[in-house]
Design a protein that fits this description.
Elements: H1 9-26, H2 34-37, H3 57-68, H4 73-80, H5 84-92
Helix pairs in contact: 4-5
């Protein structure tokens, strides 16, 4: 039995998978399709980034309005297909309008 060095079962499986993919890449089998036959799937050499389309001024205004109306950050993020952090960043700088104070 191989010493796992204190790794948990799921961690050890990941190490074994990485070793197998490394061996396939060393032999040049990564992009040829032979890796798929081994059950390891395709080796990703260049990961793709999600395209980040900037929000329009109209969308940002709609986000502000939704937050002012009490809608949750999570709900807004889902509706506009952006992260919660994006919603937070767009709304944290704008303060809610304060109600007019009564004088006299």
């Amino acid at each position: 039995m191989v010493d796992r060095g204190g790794l948990e079962s799921h961690e050890w499986k990941r190490v074994e998978r990485l070793e197998a993919v490394w061996e396939l890449a060393k032999r040049g089998l990564g992009a040829s399709g032979s890796a798929a036959d081994s059950g390891l799937g395709e080796v990703i050499t260049e990961p793709k980034r999600r395209s980040r389309t900037p929000l329009t001024a109209k969308q940002i205004d709609a986000i502000h309005t939704a937050r002012d109306d009490g809608e949750s950050v999570m709900s807004i993020a889902r509706r506009f297909e952006v992260s919660r952090m994006t919603v937070w960043e767009k709304t944290r700088t704008r303060q809610k309008p304060r109600p007019a104070e009564k004088t006299g």
